[in-house]
UniProtKB/TrEMBL annotation:
It comes from Vitis vinifera. Signal peptide: none annotated. It comes from the Eukaryota. One of its GO terms (molecular function) is isomerase activity. This is Putative arabinose 5-phosphate isomerase. Keywords: CBS domain, Isomerase. InterPro entries: CBS_dom, CBS_dom_sf. Residues 19-81 form the CBS domain.
Length: 134
């Protein structure tokens, strides 16, 4: 009974119940150098940077995978590249009132799975980050 009850409660969760809040997010500006943002990329345990403008609107995302691909392609040129030059400007996103189960489905959807979804309000302002639960 306890397992079934727990599963029922999990199925009732919305993204807003499990997301990282704004003050916990790994954020940067598009003009920031990639190399200057390495600590932010790794320190928050998300494996990504959320690239924002001055109004906190999401511009794009830059992942640890993007870092590896950029390093392989650019070599020492990575020291001169900005996050804005290399970020994904069309990431998958979600709103906070979506069911957490639906967020997981979206994260696992083709063409390839993702580990996180930026949570945006209706004006594209970054509110939080929905991420895979380990």
């Amino acid at each position: 009974m306890k397992g079934r009850q727990m599963l029922t409660e999990i199925c009732k969760l919305q993204v807003k119940d499990v997301m990282k809040k704004q003050d916990e997010l790994p954020v940067c500006k598009e003009g920031d150098l990639i190399m200057d943002q390495l600590v932010e990329l790794t320190s928050k345990g998300c494996g990504c940077l959320l690239v924002i403008d001055d109004e906190y609107c999401l511009i794009g995302t830059f992942t640890d995978g993007d870092l590896r691909r950029t390093l392989k392609a650019s070599g020492e040129g990575i020291f001169k590249l900005t996050v804005g030059q290399m970020c994904n400007r069309n990431p998958r996103t979600i709103s906070s009132n979506v069911m957490a189960v639906d967020a997981m489905r979206r994260m696992e959807a083709p063409p390839s799975p993702v580990q996180f979804l930026p949570v945006l309000d209706d004006q594209n302002v970054l509110m939080a980050l929905s991420h895979c639960m380990d």
